[in-house]
Amino acid sequence: MKTVYTTSTLADAELFRVRLRNYGIQSEIDGDNSPLRGPATPFNIIVSDEDFAEAEKILKEAFPAPRASRRPRKAAPAKKKAPAVWKKAKAKAKSRRR
Description:
Oligomer: single chain
Low-confidence stretches: none
């Protein structure tokens, strides 16, 4: 038995398990009945060694890898320095407070 898919939500695990069953592949969800289950405990979809390659193929069809963006990212605009007038006004306001 090999783990073909790991997720943090039971809903995702069930969806993938049902998809495998529709293709005739028997699978199990490991971790759904664990008494020590916490929020960081993953759900593993386990299939037999013979069905592992086919299950991986189905996984890649169901969840394709994200494509890289074709547009290059724009550089962040450079920060502008405050004009000298603002600096003088700020210094003048500080001197009035004293």
